[in-house]
Write a structure and sequence with these properties.
The complex is a heterodimer. Chain A is mainly alpha-helical. In chain A, 60% of the residues lie in helices and 6% in strands. Chain A has a single domain, classed as Potassium Channel Kv1.1, Chain A (2-Layer Sandwich), CATH 3.30.710. In chain A, a hairpin with a 5-residue loop joins strand 1 (23-27) and strand 2 (33-37). Chain B has 2 domains: 22-137, no CATH class; 148-295. In chain B, 30% of the residues lie in helices and 23% in strands. Chain B is elongated and about 85 Å long. Classes of the chains: A mainly alpha, B alpha/beta. Chain B: InterPro entries: F-box-like_dom_sf (IPR036047), F-box_dom (IPR001810), FBL15-like (IPR055312).
């Protein structure tokens, strides 16, 4: 018991130190650790904000079992870039009532950030942003994907995203007829 | 770590284990929403079985003027049926927004294009309805006549005021609106009353009725409505435009509309009294029929 108590006290001091730290440590599903600014995490992610406020942040790395290391690296990268970028008036105002505010075009750095991602990384990041309640990141990533679809024919979209057409010829013909009015170019 | 682990040390682009189609529906909805075009979103229905109905849950419908121009260009009854089918397939429980941009000159029955969408909005819209009228484009030879008389059905438990005009009002119209208070029917000025397709109106709360131009006593049925109106405004068809077809019929037919109601608090009538180059007695007789019906 004596020994245990001593260890408990040490734990306690460490927790106090943790509370004073200005970063949080996140652990990916495959066990990799990432540090991110506490302020940025709380501001950009409703889920992390809740965990920080509720004291469920683990000094040894808060487990995020849903998120792989590549996606988490991108999340952390986004948070850090966001913290470093001078927040524009547009972003400040849009964060107040995000649900009702119309979508704000990605800023230049956000555009560059999603442009360098592979498709797989982009889809993983969409899911990670959704899981962490990061509305802005979710919007920016979904916007990027929608841009890849915009103005393209179904064949082109299938090619871009490697989608296999599993309709029978008859089914496809039936659907095409039903949706004829939605097809502009053919 | 666990079985559900999707994380990878590095991207493996040679292995197709991840695709847009593996995203959950609610995220695909966000992506389709960002397209900001319902026709674009609907087109994804042909990609694969996975995508068949994804668009139908997107809680935002938006149509730009391209849709309007395009649909008018390939207009046919099968197109209208297609739109109806798609509206029927739309299954998002509530709509946050419906936005339509219409070219002002797109044709009399442009409203017919949007009637199915508006009907959907009347049932599910919980947010914003935006209808924008854009300036007409350079003149084009759209075969507007083709769209005249497309049947329109409006059923809504919440609709209070309704205005139908031009090509829509000329066609077959069914209105079933338990809370409708004001109805404005403006048919085309020169529509021959004998060519009226007929309107069936069930509006038990109706208290203001504005009826312009042709009225057909048997085809137009204001079935489920009170016999006491707060306001009735009637504008009979232009007398001269019908002179050679059915001038005797016009006043008689319009008078049937007055007979439909027992009490009217405010009555407004617009009439052109023909000048004396017509057979005056005949004309007076026609209009005395109409006025007699009022008194």
């Amino acid at each position: 018991m004596e020994v245990d108590k001593g260890k408990g006290e040490a734990e306690e001091t460490r927790k106090v130190a943790e509370a004073d730290r200005d970063t949080v440590t996140l652990k990916s599903s495959d066990g990799k650790l990432f540090e991110v600014s506490k302020e940025a995490a709380a501001r950009l992610s409703t889920v992390l904000a809740g965990m920080i406020a509720g004291g469920s942040i683990d000094d040894n790395g808060t487990d995020l079992k849903q998120i792989g290391s590549e996606a988490l690296e991108n999340v952390v990268d986004y948070c850090n870039k966001h913290a470093n970028s001078i927040p524009s008036a547009a972003l400040i105002s849009s964060s107040i009532s995000f649900n009702t505010a119309p979508f704000k075009e990605p800023e230049e750095w956000e555009r560059k950030f999603v442009d360098r991602l592979s498709h797989d990384a982009l889809f993983d990041l969409v899911e990670a942003a959704n899981f962490l309640g990061m509305e802005r990141l979710l919007d920016v990533t979904c916007h990027k994907i929608s841009e890849m679809m915009k103005g393209k024919s179904p064949d082109q979209i299938r090619e871009v995203f490697n989608i296999k057409n599993d309709y029978t010829k008859e089914e496809l013909e039936e659907i095409r007829q039903e949706l004829a009015w939605a097809f502009y170019d053919d | 770590m666990g079985d559900g682990c999707r994380g990878r040390g590095r991207p493996r682009r040679d292995v197709v284990d991840r695709s847009i189609s593996s995203l959950p529906d609610d995220l695909l909805h966000v992506i389709l929403l960002r397209l900001q075009s319902t026709p674009d979103a609907v087109r994804t229905g042909v990609l694969s079985r996975r995508w068949r109905r994804v668009w139908a849950q997107v809680p935002d419908l938006s149509f730009d003027q391209d849709y309007c121009d395009h649909v008018l260009r390939l207009w046919s009854s099968s197109i209208l049926r297609g739109i109806d089918a798609v509206v029927a397939a739309h299954s998002a429980p509530t709509l946050d927004r419906l936005a339509i941009s219409v070219r002002r000159s797109a044709g009399d029955s442009t409203p017919a294009l949007f009637a199915p969408w508006l009907r959907l909005a009347s049932q599910r819209l919980a947010g914003e309805l935006e209808i924008r009228f854009l300036p007409p484009p350079a003149p084009t030879a759209l075969p507007n006549r083709l769209f005249r008389g497309a049947p329109v059905t409006i059923r809504s438990g919440s609709l209070e005021r309704l205005k139908l005009d031009g090509g829509v009002a000329d066609g077959r119209v069914t209105v079933d609106a338990p809370r409708l208070v004001r109805l404005e029917m403006s048919r085309t000025r020169h529509l021959d009353p004998s060519k009226v397709k007929g309107a069936r109106i069930a509006a038990p709360e109706l208290s203001e009725l504005i009826w312009r131009n042709a009225y057909h006593p048997s085809r137009d049925q204001i079935a489920d409505a009170r016999r006491h109106l707060r306001k009735l405004e009637v504008v009979p068809p232009d007398y001269y435009s019908l002179y050679y077809s059915s001038k005797f019929e016009v006043p008689k037919k319009m008078s049937a509309l007055f007979k439909r109601f027992d009490y009217v608090d405010e009555l407004s009538m617009h009439m052109d009294i023909p000048s004396c180059d017509t057979d005056e007695d005949e004309v007076r007789h026609d209009y005395s029929l109409l006025l007699g019906a009022l008194l």
